[in-house]
Amino acid sequence: MDVQSLLALTLAALLVFLIAHGSPVVTIRLGGSEARTTFPMAILAAWDAGEYGVALLSGVSAVLAPALFIGIRLYLLLPLALGRVPVGLAVCLRLLHHVSRWNTVEVLTVAALLSLVRIAALAQATAGPGLAALAALALLLAALESAGLHHLWWRVR
Amino acid sequence: MTDPQATPPTAAPAAPDAPGTAVPPAMPPAAVPPPALPEPDLPTPIIIRNRRTRLSLVWLVPLLALAIGASLMVRGLLQAGPSIEIEFRTAEGLEAGKTEVRFKEVVIGRVQSVQLTDNRQRVVAVVKLDRAAAGVAVQDTQFWVVRPRIGVGGVSGISTLLSGVYIGVDAGQSSDIRTVFKGLEVPPYVLRGEPGAVFILRANDLGSLDVGSPIYHHRSPVGRVVGYTLDPASGELSVKIFIDAPYQQLVTAQSRFWNASGIDLSIDANGLTLNTQTAASVLAGGVAFEQAPDSPRATPAPANTAFALFSDRRTALAPPRGEPVPVRMVFDGSLRGLTVGAPIDFLGVEIGNVRSFSLQYDTDRRSFPVQVLADLYPLRLGAVRGALAGKQPDAPGADLALLQRLADRGLRAQLRTGNLLTGQLYVAMDFYPGLPAARLQQRDGTLTLPTVPGTLSELQSQVAQIVQKLSKLPFDEIARGLADTLRQAETTMKDLTPEARQMLAEAQRTLSSAQTLMGQLGPGAQGSLAELRQTLAAARGAVERLDRNLLDDNAPLQRNLDLTLGELQRAAQSIRLLGDLLQRHPESLLRGKPADPVLPDTGARP
Amino acid sequence: MSPTALPGQPEAGPHSGPPSGQHAGPAAGQDSGTGWIGCKCCGLVSAAVPGPSAPQHCPRCNHTLHWRKPMSVQRTWACVLAAAVLYVPANLLPIMHTTQAFRSSPHTLLGGIAELWHDGAWALAAIVFIASIAVPLMKIGALALLAWSVHYAPQWRRLERARVYALVEAVGHWSMLDVYVVVLLAAMLRFGSVASAQAGPGLLAFAAVVVLTMVAANSFDARLIWQDPENQ
């Protein structure tokens, strides 16, 4: 895939990422009161509850890793689209290499669906826009991953 | 030689640490060139230059994402209304992001955050309202927290135990926008727009009234007390009540309100009276109102009209008393049984009340008269007042002149027993024609009425005198003397008996001789003797009658006395029984005698 | 001849030639020697410099070059054993406490799956079972097997072992499923005593198991599967 397409997909992934983690994943109504959670709020709640390890792990694998994945790609692709070689290409590519391993957005999507189903037994639960955005994000990230950036290694010299 | 250019791996991960990478790492061109081959006559490919800046279709993807994201944001912004701050005493139950603001059970906003004020005395809840409800943030809107509450007026807000507390709103109607509010600590008892009317009651005593106490009309609840204020300067108590629609029409300018809390039980000079409203008012207090008797049907009173709150039904429905005329009466003797508020009765009409009484010392007579201060209400005389007062009954000195005129005719005040059972006294004003006209003195605006001693006290003093005299009699000596006399008479009788027989025989002889003598004397003597005989017979008859009527065992007087004594005995017995019953079942005073226990069935009866 | 690409197959090195035991490079464990090393990060093949065993870096991406990952088997064993030890409390301790209608009840991994099964949500029960029970156990078992086989069965079924490793790496991160579900439920169910959920102590152990298995998979150098033992 050429740089333009990659850039387009990466931008899309950025927007979808923002929607996925900025909009509520699931909305619950129980007995007249409503609760809406986004995934970062859930992580913060886990942190406040004292579950530091779990919060840290979830945050790294579900928020930080995709963010870096998209962010580094953007950082590399934008100059490339304009015809320049980005600074620190090697470092970025190495970082990407490690980050890709911890990307678990598709797991998060399935987990969100699972929790939706489990909550539906207790209360009135509806999927929020965050859930669809997570699924879209998973697809986009998989597409970006399969496209890969290894041909960029050419430019490192 | 190994080919440094290894065949690019396919789907399986090539770099073992990067799962998912599928694109082959293209090899750099700096390697061993491929072996040269003989060049056939190959056509040269056509080179088509790419058009510059050709946007591929893949750009639709980010555009779509942008569109969706933008629409979500725009929708969120459109739904967001103004942000307001509400100050409360405590944030109990309020949760950031979760607690809702509801107006008539419709969610119109949500609490964003809860913080302490700068001086850490109160909390501030930042609330984001929906755009549709932006009109709620005006000057006279009120906010409060709906929590479970248990009070005299009832239990409210129980559903919040399950759903969590929420903030209630009473939207105002002003058009000034306001963003900082002070929340109420308790929900207001009257919501704006609630149909009905508010009235004010002025009272001396709150009694057992509280916010939420019901208002009754003919024993059906028509409203409730919504608040009360005590003026710290004047001590006046104003009770604010709310009458629901459509009953507010029943409140007219002639309506009388009274405190109907509890049980109205009074034992006074008029006897025993018991009055209650409903059981709820017995427990929770209540106010009742009725149309004043004999008043024409009046138009409904406008809202916020003030009424007086009377302490019981009787005083409420009594005809208006008018201005009181303070009077002063001085009595001799004990005033035990007279209470403050005792009625002053004039020929059966209650025209006043005793306000106070105090002991005085008269240095001249060395006695302790009692001074009674009372209020007279001449208006209670009704039409009589008009007749007596003359042409201008409402002139300032008219009442005094009226009283003077009555006193000239012999009007005096006297203490009488109103109730033998309790010994309650009341002041009765009556005419005593034999007494001289008295001049009513006025001192400090208080008229002094002349008094006569009470009949009971007279009787008491007379009986006391008799008893005193009786106690002075030397009963012992008399008894002893009588016994001596009887003994002497007995002995004398014994001695006299044979002599007496002799004397009788002699007397008989003398009489017969006297009789012959009388016969000899002449018919005149016989006539007078016959008269004498008649007189004696009449006297004997009279003695016999006397004997029969008074001394005989069957005499009606004796029988009546017996019967009366019997009745008294039975009365005393039944009083004793009543006393016993009351001791065992004091509630029977209210409920009546408990049913007799059922006797066990003794089997087949003939 | 070009071998089909499988994990562990280096782009160059001692085994790209005839497999008859000709060693162009050093055996496992030795860093020095002649031969080519492929960079795991960028894929560049560079010629190893013979000399002291100081770590060498890829000229293009500066990633450390290893013939084999140092102490790979040891590290794998360590992580696998730690994961196995922690898997016990992860299953015994509750991973979530839920309060429903004023009753609080703890849920373990297996308990939650059983509940889903009893409620009739068989597909969900199967998914959770696979993700939370089958996958970690499979990973622990597979990695243990791989680590053991390097020394004790070096030539047994290399292809299958390589495929197993690929599978382990591919599905490794799916074990995070239950962790995310608990985090989401705990964050969403905050209705006080009517419905609420909190993470339990077992969740941290389970998260540790997931992390340790992922680190173990990362530590294991798949090239060891294809390596002939020294004494052969």
Please provide a written account of the structure.
- The complex is a heterotrimer of chains A (157), B (606) and C (232).
- By secondary structure, chain A is mainly alpha-helical.
- Chain A is built from six helices and three strands.
- In chain A, helix 3 (52-81) crosses helix 4 (89-99) and helix 5 (105-120) runs antiparallel to helix 6.
- Chain B is α+β, with helices and mostly antiparallel strands and 606 residues long.
- Among the domains of chain B are: 78-182, no CATH class; 196-317, no CATH class; 325-464, no CATH class.
- Helices cover 30% and strands 27% of the residues of chain B.
- Chain B contains eleven helices and 26 strands.
- In chain B, a hairpin with a 2-residue loop joins strand 6 and strand 7 (154-156).
- In chain B, helix 8 (475-521) runs antiparallel to helix 9 (523-551).
- The termini of chain B are far apart.
- Chain C is elongated and about 70 Å long.
- Chain C has helices at 72-92, 109-118, 122-152, 158-171, 177-188, 201-219, and strands spanning 36-38, 45-47, 56-57, 64-65, 96-100, 103-107, 195-199.
- Chain C starts with 35 loop residues before the first strand and ends in a 13-residue tail after the last helix.
- With 232 residues, chain C is mainly alpha-helical.
- The longest helix of chain C is centred in the middle third of the chain and has 31 residues, at 122-152.
- Helices cover 46% and strands 11% of the residues of chain C.
- Chains in contact: A-B, A-C, B-C.
- At the A-C interface, strand 1, strand 2, helix 2, helix 3 and helix 4 of A face helix 3, helix 5, strand 7 and helix 6 of C.
Number of domains of chain C: 2
Structural class of chain A: mainly alpha
Envelope shape of chain A: elongated
The rounded distance between the terminal residues' Cα atoms of chain C is: 23 Å
Strand order in the largest sheet of chain A: 2-1-3
Tally the helices of chain A. 6
